[in-house]
């Protein structure tokens, strides 16, 4: 089945048509930068640009960086606060004139990795972290998704969440070299390991393509691997989610 997958991030919106039986993108992805924080109507218009770019007329899956319950968005840590409490499905369907299904963006990335990528065929507990503007997380047990885990917002220090210290953006903002940042990331992963006992940790997001710069500094019990889909995981997983929600 062919579905348009769209991944909303903190600095850009990306999308591409996906063949959901294989996880392959059917065209070069379209990326629209969003350097400023856009209110819901303006961000929905950006999503509409991507739909128009592909002249898309079918179903759309959208990964959103926040807690998503059905059609409703409950949190928006790195996007506009007006998204909180918003009926996201209606917002994006009005902008695109197409049927839309919403899912947490990290959950979308996890779905892609577990079905087609680094977590394929793993029966135990698998944790995926997307390290970009913030930290997204997706938790799977026996292949089943525990939705909206949001482990990047684990309270860390001085009342701030972990993503303020360990995300890809934090590494740049705090001017940390790869070894310093990997030390912080190891501490964070150690806490998650003590709570969740994952057998595999998949690192995705913007820094996954640079894993050779820091993986050798990580100290973990679980095996740590880079996401196979890199920055395309959210697009593929959003399409997979929409496929699974047909008729919902």
UniProtKB/TrEMBL annotation:
InterPro entries the record matches: ATPase_NBD, ROK
SUPFAM superfamilies recorded = Actin-like ATPase domain
TM region(s), chain numbering: none
User: Which superkingdom heads the taxonomic lineage of this protein's source?
Assistant: Bacteria
Which PANTHER family does the UniProt entry name for this protein?
Answer: POLYPHOSPHATE GLUCOKINASE, ROK (REPRESSOR, ORF, KINASE) FAMILY
Q: What is this protein called?
A: ROK family protein
- This protein's species is Horticoccus luteus
Q: What is the lineage of its organism?
A: Bacteria, Pseudomonadati, Verrucomicrobiota, Opitutia, Opitutales
């Amino acid at each position: 089945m062919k579905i348009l997958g769209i991944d909303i991030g903190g600095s850009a919106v990306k999308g591409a048509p996906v063949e959901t039986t294989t996880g392959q993108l059917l065209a070069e992805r379209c990326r629209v930068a969003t350097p400023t924080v856009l209110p819901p109507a303006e961000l929905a218009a950006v999503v509409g640009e991507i739909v128009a770019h592909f002249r898309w007329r079918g179903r759309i899956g959208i990964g959103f960086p926040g807690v998503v319950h059905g059609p409703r968005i409950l949190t928006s840590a790195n996007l506009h606060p007006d998204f909180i409490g918003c009926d996201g499905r209606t917002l994006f369907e009005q902008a695109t004139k197409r049927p839309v299904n919403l899912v947490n963006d990290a959950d979308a990335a996890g779905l892609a990795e577990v079905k087609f990528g680094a977590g394929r065929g793993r029966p135990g507990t698998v944790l995926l972290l997307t390290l970009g503007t913030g930290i997204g997380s997706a938790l799977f047990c026996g292949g089943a998704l525990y939705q909206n885990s949001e482990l990047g917002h684990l309270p860390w220090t001085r009342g701030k969440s972990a993503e303020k210290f360990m995300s890809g953006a934090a590494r740049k903002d705090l001017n940390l070299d790869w070894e310093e940042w990997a030390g912080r990331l190891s501490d964070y992963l150690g806490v998650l390991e003590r709570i969740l006992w994952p057998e595999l940790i998949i690192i995705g997001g913007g820094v996954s393509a640079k894993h050779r710069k820091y993986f050798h500094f990580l100290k973990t019990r679980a095996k740590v691997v880079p996401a196979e889909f890199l920055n395309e995981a959210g697009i593929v997983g959003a399409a997979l989610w929409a496929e699974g929600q047909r008729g919902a």
